[in-house]
Amino acid sequence: MKDFNQAIALDSKLAQAYIGRSLTHNELGNYQKAMEDYNQAISLDPQLAQAYIGRSLTHDELGNYQKAIEDYNQAIALAPQDAKAYYHRGTTYYELGKYQFAIEDYNQAIALAPQFAGTYYNRGLTHSVLGNHQFAIEDFNQVIALAPQFAGTYYNRGGTHYELGKYQEAIEDFNQAITLAPQDAEAYMGRSFTHYRLGNYQKAIQDYNQAIKINPALQEQFKDYRKKLSDSIQKNR
Predict the structure, then answer these.
(1) Residue 194 in contact with residue 210, Cβ under 8 Å?
(2) What are phi and psi of 199, to 5 degrees?
(3) What residues contact 36, with CB distance under 8 A and at least 6 apart?
(4) pLDDT reported for residue 4
(5) Whose CA is closest to 133, among 108, 168, 157, 107?
(6) Picking from 104-118, 169-183, 217-231, which range would have the lowest pLDDT averaged per residue?
(7) Contact predicate 169/141, CB 8 Å
(8) Residue 193: which region, alpha, beta or left (left: phi > 0; alpha: psi -120 to 50)?
């Protein structure tokens, strides 16, 4: 921050200095100050796509999704080969519930930057929401090939396998998610549901208990499941 302030003091028309300072403001959660700096950068250099992308991200943080879309549109008009702009606009479309638009932007981002795992991950999540489970599996597979240590991919692929009725594959994915992130309560809960479907009620209750131990707030959310699980155990004694 200090360096950017100094740069602006020396040259108040240096757009990149305002962008640099705005990034710091964003990291600190000072979104309004970040917005002011992006506005200044754009007024100094309205052809700077980076400034529109940055301001879009700030709009996203503030929940101003439609304004974010407008800035991403401008960034793409100025820099149509910038994969980040399509990726972030896709994420904003996802937040707006415009899933097909999100898919189209992720497709374009992947065409421009095929080695970025995050785009496949987000596209996989979007396919899951749309019920395109096989497409989601393919995207999660690609994420694992590019970034095999990311636990969230295994968790989400496990959930997708569960939706497809592939319970053993789901168990394997939840196992890996837990290995990589042993404090992930959702992964234990997902594995618990899958064990329940397989009739492994003791394993299901063990995973449920572990999930609640990690995150007690889940107890209220899944109290009906807990009762159903207890009833199944009683019936099978």
Answers:
(1) no
(2) 80, 15
(3) none
(4) 61
(5) 157
(6) 217-231
(7) no
(8) alpha
